[in-house]
Amino acid sequence: MESNAKQPPKHSARVDRQRQTFAPHLRKWLVRHGRGVHTSFMCGVAHRFGDFAAGLVLAWLIARR
What we know:
- There is one protein chain.
- By secondary structure, this protein is mainly α.
- Helices cover 80% and strands 0% of the residues.
- The termini are far apart.
């Protein structure tokens, strides 16, 4: 009786070669831009939190009035 289960795809040598050439480029990019990406993300989080806090203060002032 035949199995209906799907067989995992077989990776060709081309895919392995592409992965071997892409991985070092990705590591270099992360080293070069990693700190900048993290910093910009944290600035974005701080900006969103500041907007939320300002809105909360305004809502509290209006409700208190």
